[in-house]
Amino acid sequence: MKSNENENQISCLVDSGIVYSKRDMIRVLRDLDRVEYIDFIDSTTVAQGEGYIVEVYINGYDSTIVFNNRLHINVNGFDFLKIKTNPERLVELISGHRIIQLKPLTNILTTNKAAIEEEIDEQRIALASQLACDNEVDLNYYE
């Protein structure tokens, strides 16, 4: 195989792996919904609880805030994200000596189907809108 074929491959993660792309980190985190979290600094637990992921964003000025059972996560504050499924499903946000471990408490397969379909439709519209900016794609392609 040519060496440039290896260079152009996009990673594929199934149930475990490390995510460095901020955009991919956002995609993983936005699907979590309700989580149990543990905040570790140097392997010592400094906080833990349950909450809902309310926002996931990327910018250079907003903090990640975990308060009042709500998580507002700025992926810019983390070096990478680790996905684990053995022995249980976990997502770890890692930044230096800090790890915020998130354990999903909801399952997309057993939650409200109508809400899931609505979210998928919203994502399709957002994707079509992004493509429209680049390629002048018809926003009503899904109808």
Fill in the keyword field for this structure.
3 helices; 2 domains; alpha+beta
Structure description:
The protein is of the alpha+beta class and 143 residues long. The protein has two domains: 11-109; 112-143. Helix content is 26%, strand content 36%. The chain contains three helices and eight strands, in the order H-E-H-E-E-E-E-E-E-E-H. It has an eight-stranded mixed sheet with strand order 1-6-7-8-2-3-5-4. The protein is globular.
Q: What is the secondary structure topology, with strand pairs?
A:
Layout lengths: L2 H5 L9 E3 L2 H9 L3 E8 L2 E14 L7 E3 L2 E5 L5 E5 L5 E6 L2 E7 L8 H23 L8
Parallel strand pairs: 3-5
Antiparallel strand pairs: 1-6, 2-3, 2-8, 4-5, 6-7, 7-8
Order of the strands making up the biggest sheet? 1-6-7-8-2-3-5-4
Q: Report the total helices.
A: 3
Shape: globular
Number of domains: 2
* Distance between the first and last residues' Cα: 42 Å
Structural class: alpha+beta
DSSP E strands, number:
8
Strand content: 35-45%
Low-confidence stretches: none
* Rg of Cα set: 17 Å
> Mean pLDDT across all residues, rounded?
82
The H/E string reads HEHEEEEEEEH
